Amino acid sequence: MDEKITRKSLQVKDIRTRLSQNGGRAYWRSLDELANTDEFQEMVQREFPDQASEMKDPVSRRNFLKLMGASLAFGGLTGCTIQPPEKIVPFVRAPENLIPGKPLYFASAMSLGGVATGILVESHMGRPTHIEGNPEHPASQGGVNALIQASILDLYDPDRAQVVKNAGMISTWDAFTQALGKNLTTQQFKKGKGLRILTETLTSPTLGHQLKTLLEKFPAARWHQYEPANRDNVRAGSILAFGEAANTYYDFSKADVILSLDADFTFSGAGNTRYARDFAARRRVAEATESMNRLYAVESTPSATGSIADHRLALNSGELEALTLALAEKLGVALKSNPESTPYNDHSGWLDPLVRDLKKHSGSSLVIAGDYQPPAIHALVHAINQNLGNVGKTVHYTEPLEVESVDQNQSLTELVHDMRAGQVDMLIIVGGNPIFNAPMDLDFASALRKVEFRAHMGLYENETSELCHWHLPESHYLETWGDARAYDGTVSIVQPLIQPLYGTKSPYDLLGTLIGQGGKPVLDILRAYWLDQNLALDFEKFWQQSLHDGLLSQSALPRKDLRVDSTLQVSPELGKNLEEEELELILRPDATIWDGRYVNNGWLQETPNPITKLTWDNAALISPDTAERLGLKNEQVVKLDYAGQTLSVPVWLVPGQASDVVALHLGYGQNHSGRVGNGTGFNAYALRNSSAQWGGAGLKLNATFDYHSLASTQDHHSMEGRHLVRHGDLEQFAKHPTFAQEEGHNFPEDLTLYSGFEYNGNAWGMTIDLNACIGCNACSVACQSENNIPIVGKDEVLNGREMSWIRIDRYYTDLDEPEIFHQPVPCQQCENAPCELVCPVTATSHSAEGLNDMVYNRCVGTRYCSNNCPYKVRRFNFLQYADRDSESLKLQNNPDVTVRYRGVMEKCTYCVQRINSARIESKKSGEPIRDGQIKTACEQACPTEAIAFGDINDSKGRVGRLKASPLNYEILNELNTRPRTSYLARIKNPNPEIVES
Amino acid sequence: MSEAAKPSEKQYIPPPSELGSGQTSYTSITEKISSVVLTRSTPLVWFISLLVGFTLLQALLIAVAYLFYEGTGIWGLNIPIGWGFAIINFVWWIGIGHAGTLISAVLLLFRQKWRTSINRSAEAMTIFAVMCAAMFPLIHTGRPWLAAYWLLPYPNSMDIWPQFRSPLIWDVFAVSTYFSVSLVFWTLGMIPDFASFRDRAKNRITQIIFGVLAMGWRGSAIHWERYEMASLLLAGLATPLVLSVHSVVSLDFAVSIIPGWHTTIFPPYFVAGAIFAGFAMVLTLMIPVRRIYGLQDFITDRHLENMAKVMLVSGLIVGYGYFMEQFMAWYSASVFEGYMMQNRMHGPYGSYYWALILCNILVPQLLWIKSCRTSTIWLFVVSMFINVGMWLERFIIVVTSLHRDFMPSSWDMYHPTIWDWATYIGTIGLFLFLFVLFIRGLPLIAIHEIRTLLPIGGKKS
């Protein structure tokens, strides 16, 4: 009878019939019992298509919650679509190590752009709550960036795709498998001629193996890869230089002189966390006699890396190319033919000193080109590094990380071509959102419509799912097994922390279904693959060790010796400068939401861009002088016209941007992303085409009279003569080591009649090394995740009510050629805290260990403490910011930290919950707390190890030693606040030749 | 006083200098003042004023209800500007209240006889202004339902006390003391007049109401003796309050370390400002009231002129305060103080600062001219300027100091919302509503004290 059920209506009669046919049972004890069959679930779900459509509407939160409530009740009826029948019984024997109140840590890995970073995930009673770096993983070494940490929020995002949908209606995996099977059978006869798979960049050996198996089974099928933030140019550059695609990675620990050509290597791209750590380690100078590395940065739009450079030059792309050409020529790189462009005009007087510096450090220098620079630049850089003798020392080559390295732009173009030609019968899209982010000229949508069977697997229902017959909800990486390669090829194991929250499956499951492994657990697929690789004699032991470590040991790809043998052929266009008054467009992935995949992640939306400090929006970034020339004001909407495509977007003035360059960040402007991401920003993909993925010259800009308000977390960019960030150069430091401490006024210790507090036990303190801080926001997101800090939304950021406990102040020195400084500011935990004495109810008071404790229960919210805080680090819950309604988001909360109610002041506590747990351990064991045993969340996350926390009574401890450094200073100490948080002044290492000129 | 004691109406008594020419006998005084409450038909203006006050009061109720429901986020506050309209209005209202106490207590002790005709209404103004003021520190907190009692030192099992180092706790004591002393003083002063009303009541209900309020006052000599002693004691109690309350309020700012707040001149400067603002408000209220009820004989031009003189003097002290702030910003050579003053004058709120100088310093200089001091229109205009100016002063102190303090990265702007305005205007409504009820329902001029001004009345106080 099941076959007779039509899609549109469900007759109660049918159920009655069904009930009457259940002869064996006289009664059904619950609806569940009756309903717990797939067929019935399907019927029930199809009975209420209204509900499905309602979920798609942009409903208000209140409505949404009502619906959620309804669907919860409904869920009880249907007994869930996918979860395996499980009995809920108490543990007979408690699982090993699972102690309520004590978190467990598991090694896993997260990939972005296919490249994995090892992480440790904190789990409270089975709930992953916080992500830290995996100290044993080469790509992390304990550090972790903001994107990775924030990815945990996606797991709990209530807007995630939760059910299989067929043509917009709720369906089941079985229905999909059936439909898929039917189509696959047809394909089998055609050897898969009409079958196409589209994935994002894929480095997972297991998934790659599955795909290859699929291609063996269907020899005529094709596998395409595309993601918008691809590294096509890097690949093409390597083919140009070596004749083959190769993966390049760097060893910054051996680099003394670094030239970055638009490479934001400390902040984004493959291996950034590790690079940041190695790079910063070479910049740390505690003594005046120590040496440090030197970074030259040339870039079009300011980046985190550029902001810590010793020499920074803002050039447009043409000038940057000309500079590279000139550099290559001076370093003896032979070209087949010289480009027609005018030679590099060295206004800054950089070039010769730079060349001499690089030559002097042959073998310990490093030139690195940004992922989005044209292939020729990459090829030139390979040749330059080779001539400088850096290959094998600071630069290493391996086989590509990808299972199959392709030119993604071309791969997608071919797919579109095939689709348009009607050669594609079925297309399975795994991840990504090509309708939204494929190059505009390909018109992916219209081509896709020609495909008869289209399925899309993704974390979210997006524009692409909308146009596909089937949407398959993908498991979050914390819900599934998997593997991927790190920047040096190290195989990292993705370990699930929790059962899938919804009826989701992973790409491994999907591929398994395609190749006849349907239903096989992913863990089995994964183990089977690695068992076959014969990596160890005792596989079980090897596997357990790998799970523990989060990686397969010794699995980094072997280094290859690649040489640029022939002379290079570069395009004659290379280095072509802009015409007079011509504008250039550059497109880049966003600093927080990347290619748009994190657009619905509230933490990242509210994390300010490290340079512009914008939240919740992107903007057309232009330099102040260009704005002046064009008569543009901040937030004024302009109409950009590039290669026939237009976009209206507000401008934002950025000191340090190259003149005549308009920079736009990708990923914003989505309308299908969810409650957080909808309506934020402007879709820069609208200006992107396949021949100019990262922009180019010839942009037209027309000003309009409209304004769009942009939410920046910092409105004032000058230090106004206050000695907040203190800085000097290496030479100054050598001559006068205490220069930083003597800047500004110091409060004389003997001016007060009162003796200070005595701290006989621990006295907690922190140092922040401004020489290492790149302003990457990792600390800020770590803090948000650890301390249950709510997001407030764009309007509230505009109102100046953002909640971050550790903010990163960014100051410029100048409008046109600024130095850029970052300064993370958490609570300074003053010994003479101005906040403490003004609170009428003693809600903030001094602890015996010198912390300014905040007692949320006691706080009545007079805000007097915040007014009296000179550092303005206190945050107030003006409204009910903490989400107390969304059930799934509650799972993310750290149980050791209170979720604050409205009307309560909050601030950085130095992660007092971590201190307390260490103290409890210490009391139990009788051992004192070791130096470094307590790490605050910000300290732990910091990729550059700029933050150090510890006991200042322990003069031999890390913080004790750092506080003794001549660079150590406290901000606003003329107020006699005596902060426990202090800063290490920033030291630059400029090239003396350039300084003199 | 029994009717028998009253002198013959035909007997000629020269009018005293404190009163206008028409008021010559006990009866006419009592008749005129009590008629406002007891006999005269209520003028239309009274109903209009009541309606306006009542309407604005509704704005307050709605604004506060929404505030409690949604949180302080409905106001334009942020970090760094943690205090806005609520604290500005608090200081403004408290300041206004000061004139009442000054008139009723200090001038009583200094035996300034001219105060008698204005002290009752000035005291009423004090009570109502303090009611408006006292509301703000409570509702501006994030969790008023807890602040309502956690700020009080009550014994509890947790042994938790308020923080006595915090100026906000001093505020609690200062304002509550001020309110209770003012209320008692005011109520006590009305008892003889209640008795007159009781005696002259035209109907039973009025008689009962005023009978109860009169608390058995019979006008016996021992009553009078005790009454005088109590008045004197309360005046003695209230006099230091004139100085202390606003000093304590100023310490909310002076104790902090924020440039623009952290100033030792604040206590005297705030007290002078309070008297300045208070007299301006008394004039703002009295000028229309005496016209509507024809009380020119009681509240004479001489009264107005005296008040104008007090305003002129206190205004000059305030001006000195402004000057000293400027001077100290320069003399301290502190980059923070210097910037604060630059920012006040030339920053985004610069126009507010110059408006403040205009209202509080320049316009009051008109009071040097006698014709301005004696012209009700000029006085009304000047006092309105001062009302606005003193509000601006508090705005400048609270907002411009906070919005740009030590860390330039945190600098921000304050944009008051409709709810800020609704709460502010709502308290004006509350004040107006209460004051209008007072005029109609209670003796708006102290009858028995006015009678002492008559030469035959003898000297009592």
Question: Quick one: which chains have the greatest interface?
Answer: A-B, 54 and 52 residues
The main pleated sheet of chain B reads as: none
Q: Kindly state the percentage of residues in helix of chain A.
A: 25-40%
User: What is the 3D form of chain B?
Assistant: globular
What is the approximate shape of chain A?
globular
Terminal Cα span of chain A: 89 Å
Largest sheet of chain A: 7 strands, mixed
Low-confidence stretches of chain A: 1-11, 22-36, 46-60, 71-81
Note the beta-strand portion of chain B.
under 5%
DSSP, total strands of chain B? 0
Gap from first CA to last CA of chain B: 17 Å
| Count of DSSP H/I helices of chain A | 34
Strand order of the largest sheet of chain A: 5-4-16-15-14-6-7
Series of secondary-structure elements of chain B, N-terminal to C-terminal? HHHHHHHHHHHHHHHH
Rg over CA atoms of chain B: 23 Å
Quaternary structure type: heterodimer
Your description of this structure?
The complex is a heterodimer of chains A (997) and B (461). Chain A is of the alpha/beta class. In chain A, helix 6 (146-156) runs parallel beside helix 26, helix 8 (205-217) packs parallel to helix 19 and helix 9 crosses helix 14. The model of chain A is unreliable at 1-11, 22-36, 46-60 and 71-81 (pLDDT under 50). With 461 residues, chain B is mostly helical. Helix content of chain B is 70%, strand content 0%. Chain B contains 16 helices and no strands. In chain B, helix 6 (167-200) packs antiparallel against helix 8 (221-254) and helix 12 (350-362) packs antiparallel against helix 14. The longest helix of chain B is centred in the middle third of the chain and has 34 residues, at 167-200. Mean pLDDT of chain B is 85; it is low at 1-14 and 457-461. Classes of the chains: A alpha/beta (997), B mainly alpha (461). Chains A and B meet through strand 30, helix 28, helix 29 and strand 34 of A and helix 5, helix 6 and helix 11 of B.
